[in-house]
Design goal:
The chain folds into three domains: 14-78 and 176-346, TIM Barrel (Alpha-Beta Barrel), CATH 3.20.20.60; 87-166, PK beta-barrel domain-like (M1 Pyruvate Kinase, Domain 3), CATH 2.40.33; 359-475, Pyruvate Kinase, Chain: A, domain 1 (3-Layer(aba) Sandwich), CATH 3.40.1380. The protein is 36% helix and 22% strand. The chain has 17 helices and 21 strands. The strands form four sheets. An eight-stranded parallel β-barrel has the order 1-2-3-12-13-14-15-16, surrounded by seven helices. Helix 1 packs parallel to helix 12 (324-339).
Length: 491
């Protein structure tokens, strides 16, 4: 590939691509980035630490090659609930038949199976539903004892070793982070990931526990895949740095007709609260084995874009599929086409949340409005933590946003944010310097022509996070320009 290419995206909605056996080479990672991937996901449910470290190094090589910040999401597995093993590897459960789940570790048969999770037995009550094997089988609890649940098979079928158990009716007294997750989390933070995906969040306390462990070293993305999380949605979103609509397990525990409603609700609330939101799972599922998606899948991606999601995610399509590059490329094309539609623009304007009653929010909302009135082709957000850029992105402005930051970690995290083109820029100490950098970098990266204006939002004094309080409009003139940032240091 040509050395030192500089890549600019024209779409606002970002793409997250999962790495796996089909995409774990430097060449493939670079091809996925060129096709449109903005963030790469490392799935800690699979692979060894050495595999993830190697892929992380490849991502950072691609980042240096293309001179663009690339975000990395470490998705930890979370508590996996499973039945035990069976004599002969499996049994057939007949509808209407009794079936016991207990703590006895011996292999199961057609009458009983091991359920090595006392938390489920403690929490379940008569009438509760247990879903097995991704919801293919359903059991109804009829009575419980200290170490067992007696059930009736409501929906039968073949049940084999170690299949998953979902309990949609109750909140389980289990932590969101298992012992394995804690080891994976420590490793992921050590190799420098930008976001941590927290699986099976049920309560705000789950997020708080993770936040104490992460200690600011990455953004926490709460994966919303339990119905119980919807009962405390605002609290969970407020404690998180971002959220993911994880439709896999959510689609098991909720009826299929309820999942689209939940998705729209989560996206809407995340936007209102100013947190990036990812829509994930089965977006282009058929492209695991086919070179093109179904029309329904294209419509699914488009719906997430019309709703204003910050990002859409590919899982097995890029991790294990036969057409990983094509999957990213078609997702890029779908997003781009939707964002050219006037209905999409009208929808972003119509659903724009009101700014909060704070100076920072008022300035960021004003930046979007001023850019519209003066027809500025770009907004520049000078930011330490990324919050200024996120507040402006919350308004879904028509103008793209350049997130200018001297902090490399912040630039990488902003790779997930809607409409933000993150740039690592030199430190500035005055508003004059800030405006100068905004003009130079907007021009360098193709956002600004001579005699056009940029709207600049910043915080004074500089270098302090969360203090957005200044707004300027500046025009790029044809006067002799200042020296641009060093091509080897300005990303």
């Amino acid at each position: 590939m040509p050395a030192r290419e500089r890549v600019r995206r024209y779409r606002r909605t970002k793409i997250v691509a999962t790495l796996g056996p089909a995409s774990a080479t430097p060449e493939m990672i670079q091809r996925l980035f060129l096709a449109g991937a903005d963030v790469f996901r490392l799935n800690f449910s699979h692979g060894e630490h050495a595999d993830h470290a190697e892929r992380m190094a490849m991502i950072r090589e691609a980042e240096a090659h293309f001179r663009r910040p690339i975000g990395v999401l470490a998705d930890v597995q979370g508590p996996k609930l499973r039945v035990g093993r069976f004599t002969g590897g499996g049994v057939f459960l007949k509808p209407g038949a009794p079936f016991r789940l207990d703590l006895n570790p011996t292999t199961g048969d057609g009458r009983r199976a091991t359920l090595p999770h006392p938390e489920i037995i403690d929490a379940a009550q008569a009438g509760a539903t247990l879903l097995l094997d991704d919801g293919k089988l359903r059991l109804q609890v009829v009575r419980k004892g200290p170490d067992y649940l007696d059930t009736i098979v409501a929906v039968g079928g073949r049940l084999t070793d170690r299949k998953g158990v979902n309990v949609p009716d109750v909140v389980l007294a289990i932590p969101a982070l298992t012992a394995k997750d804690r080891l994976d989390l420590a490793f992921a933070l050590d190799i420098g990931v930008d976001y941590v995906g927290l699986s099976f969040v049920q309560r705000p306390e789950d997020v708080q526990e993770a936040r104490e462990l992460v200690a600011g070293r990455a953004w926490i993305i709460s994966k919303l895949e339990k119905p119980q999380a919807l009962d405390r949605l605002d609290e969970i979103i407020a404690l998180s740095d971002g959220v993911m609509v994880a439709r896999g397990d959510l689609g098991v525990e909720l009826p299929p007709e309820a999942v689209p409603i939940a998705q729209k609700r989560i996206v809407r609330r995340a936007r209102q609260l100013g947190r990036p939101v990812i829509v994930a799972t089965q977006m282009l599922e058929s492209m695991i084995s086919a070179p093109t998606p179904t029309r329904a899948e294209a419509s699914d991606v488009a719906t997430a874009v019309f709703d204003g999601a910050d990002a859409v995610m590919l899982s097995a399509e890029t991790a294990a599929g036969q057409y990983p590059t094509e999957a990213v490329a078609i997702m890029d094309r779908i997003i781009d086409r939707v964002e050219q539609d006037q209905d999409w623009r009208d929808g972003m304007d119509r659903t724009r949340p009101e700014p909060e009653h704070a100076t920072s929010d008022a300035i960021c909302a004003a930046a979007a409005e001023v850019a519209r009135h003066v027809q500025a082709p770009v907004i520049a957000a000078l930011t330490q933590s990324g919050r200024t850029a996120l507040r402006i992105a919350r308004q879904r402005p028509a103008a793209p946003i350049i997130g200018l930051t001297p902090v490399e970690a912040t630039a990488r995290r902003l790779a997930l944010a809607w409409g933000v083109h993150a740039v690592i820029s030199p430190d500035v100490h005055t508003m004059t310097e800030a405006v100068g950098q905004a003009l130079l970098l907007a021009r360098r990266d193709g956002f600004l022509e001579f005699d056009q204006s940029v709207v600049v939002a910043a915080g004074i004094p500089f270098g302090q996070a969360g203090a957005t309080n200044a707004l300027r409009v500046a025009t790029l003139t044809r006067e002799p320009r200042q020296t641009e940032p060093d091509e080897d240091t300005g990303a």
